[in-house]
Each structure stands twice: as C-alpha cells, then as structure tokens.
Design brief:
CATH superfamily of the largest domain: Glycogen Phosphorylase B
CATH architecture of the largest domain: 3-Layer(aba) Sandwich
Shape: elongated
Strand order of the largest sheet: 3-2-1-4-5-6-7
CATH class of the largest domain: Alpha Beta
Number of helices: 13
Radius of gyration: 21 Å
Helix content: 40-55%
CATH topology of the largest domain: Rossmann fold
Structural class: alpha/beta
Number of strands: 13
Order of helices and strands: EHEEHEHEHHEHEHEHEEHEHEEHHH
Length: about 375
C-alpha cells in the first residue's frame, strides 16, 4: 500500500463549498485505499480529518506559497512517515513538490482542480501566461497527474506535452450512490414551499453558488437581467430560489425582485433540501474552469439540470441534463420552460459509478499503485 503525504494549502474545514469538499472528501475516501497523512494550514482543525492524520505545518499567510523553510520541515515528515508519494492539491506548490521529489525520491502526484492558468485567463488576469509555464513545468515533472475532467486531461496532454500513461481523470464526487426517493423529494419540496411562502402551483428553479466569486456573480446577473425576463414573458408559473453567501452590497435588496419571481435564500446550512426539493437546477455559468461541483450534486440528487456548455462534460446524466450554448439565453430559457412540462427521469446508474467518492478513490489509488 502506498503511503501518501498530501499537501493541502488552504482551509478546507468545515467543508462547505465545492473546492473544500473536493479535497476533504477525496482525502477521506482516499485514506481508505492508502495510508494517508496530510500537511495543512494552521486554521484547519485536525479533528475533522476523517480516517487520516492532519498536521498543521503551514502558515495561513499568503507568503506560505513561497516559504523555502517548508522544504526542510516537510522533508523530515516524509522521512518520519516513510512516505512513498507526495500529493499536491493544485499546482501552486509545484516548486516544493519538485524539490521534495529530487531530495527524497518520492513519487510526485499533482491533483488538478482546473487548468489554473486558463481559469485566471477567463477572469482577466494579465499574468496568466506566467502561471501557464509554471503549471506546465509542474505537471511535466510529476510522476502522476490527476485531472478533474476529461477535457482538462486532453488539453494538458496536448499543450503541456504530457505522457498519456501518467494522466488520469479523477473527478469531483458525491457521497451517496443512489438518488433520493420520490417521497423524499416531495417532502423537501413541501418544506421549501412552506419556508419561502410559495404556492403549490409554482415550479421551483434553483441557483446555488458563492456569490462573491466572479463567475457565479456573472451567472446571477444573467439570471436577473437575461433569463428571468424571458421566463416572465413565457407565462410559466415558477420561482427562482437563489442560495449562496457573499451577495454584493448593490444586490442586497433582492426583495425588489420578489414580484419578479426571485427568492433570495442566502447561505443555508443544509443545501441538500434545496437540491432535492427543486424541480430544476439552473447553471448559466460561462467563466471559470474545471467541473461545476454543484451540477454534479444536483444530478446526484436526481434534479433535472439546465447548463451552459462550460458547466459540465461527460456527466453520464442521461435525460436529467440539458446543455445549451454559452450565452444563448433564449435557448436556456426555452429549455427551462420545456423541462417544466416533462416527467422526471431516473438518474443513470453509470452516473453513480463515475461520481461516487468510493469509486473515485479506488481508481486514484489503483492508478498510482498499479
């Protein structure tokens, strides 16, 4: 069995948003297949690391990413733990992983959550070409490369000139491997109708995301200014529930939109009720990279989803997922209206085979040990 030293460069506990869940749950399930020790920032509570040991060795300061002293402290941990592999979450600690590989002989694994340079490019950062070269060097030096989706893997193999045999897709996952029952979905719908004083005649549309993250904020603006006016004109009986923290001050009074069928629920501790109770999850996100974790969760809960092309690929979602062109909001709104008149299909078994964390962790472990 491989002994993995995972370097987790930021706070992931409590795991609330997709990026935090993507590391916390991957490590939790990966620890069942390997011997895993994590090195992370001081703000993480080691008691929340399920099934593995977490060591608070990294500062929470932004300067932690360039602190050369970590090479010496982590090298000692590698020797003490007899680690065979170092796993980096994201490429930013590439310099550290490369030095540790050269100094100790460990195998280097890069767990990519996006092609980071391209994500920053879509966000308008001028320095993305510098990150591209650094990211390329890091992946080329690694012994194994995990990519979040097939598109990222294919792009990296081609543009970073990587060895295909050293690359695999290790996607974001979910912790359940069957969809909720019809009774459970109906119970959650009734709870949402009651909580938000919505009449039974309305279809519930859901949008969820951290709203101070530009791609999600842009998507919210599209909902308010593009999609919702089209839905109002269609005559559809619906309510759009917006969930998420970080709403900008200029949108704080979303009560102005109540007469336009918009309900702002804010941050909720139990988003599962919203995923299960909604009739349709909408994802009009056109910027950012990687896989849209909330789409994976929505489909896993058996919720019909409408998404742009940028939202998700190779989802094995069957009829649960409708993909429209990026920025074609007339088609997006038409897909919502059409979906509201359809019976809910079953979630394909292949979806859970691909996106259940237990299967994902087994695949990752087999890849680096095979």
């Amino acid at each position: 069995m491989a002994t993995i030293l995972s370097i987790v460069p930021y706070k992931i506990f409590p795991a609330k948003v997709g990026g935090q869940k993507g590391i916390a749950l991957f490590n939790q399930y990966f620890a069942r297949e390997t011997s895993l020790v994590a090195v992370s920032v001081n703000s993480n509570d080691p008691q929340q690391a399920t099934g593995y040991t977490m060591l608070n060795q990294l500062s929470d300061s932004p300067l932690r990413y360039i602190n050369p002293l970590y090479f010496f402290s982590i090298k000692k941990i590698i020797r003490r733990q007899k680690a065979t592999h170092v796993l980096l979450e994201h490429p930013y600690y590439g310099w550290l992983g490369i030095l540790l590989k050269w100094a100790t002989g460990v195998k280097l694994v890069i767990h990519s959550h996006n092609i980071e340079a391209l994500r920053w490019k879509t966000l308008g950062k001028w320095w993305w070409p510098v990150l591209w070269q650094y990211e390329k060097m890091t992946h080329r030096t690694a012994d194994y490369n995990f990519f979040i989706q097939d598109n990222d893997r294919h792009l990296a193999i081609k543009d970073f000139t990587l060895d295909d045999a050293k690359c695999t897709t290790i996607t974001y996952g979910i912790e359940w491997n069957t969809p909720p029952s019809v009774e459970e979905r109906n119970r959650c719908r009734r709870a949402l109708l009651q909580q938000h004083n919505i009449g039974d005649q309305y279809a519930i549309l859901l949008f969820n995301g951290t709203l101070n993250y530009k791609p999600n904020l842009d998507a919210l603006t599209v909902i308010l200014e593009k999609i919702n006016p089209l839905l109002l004109a269609s005559g559809l009986a619906y309510k759009i529930i917006i969930c998420g923290r970080g709403l900008p001050a200029y949108l704080n009074d979303l009560a102005d939109y109540e007469n336009k069928h918009i309900v702002y629920a804010g941050f909720t501790d139990d988003i599962t009720v919203y995923f299960k109770g909604a009739g349709i999850f909408i994802n009009p996100v056109v910027d950012g990279g990687g896989i849209k974790t909330k789409l994976v969760e929505a489909i896993g809960y058996g919720t019909r989803s409408i998404s742009t092309e940028n939202g998700i690929t190779q989802a094995d979602a069957g009829e649960l997922l409708t993909i429209t062109g990026n920025s074609n909001w007339e088609a997006f709104a038409a897909a919502i209206v059409h979906a509201c008149g359809l019976p809910l299909p079953e979630t394909p078994a292949s979806f859970f085979q691909k996106f259940y964390w237990g299967n994902i962790a087994k695949k990752a472990a087999a890849f680096i040990q095979g």
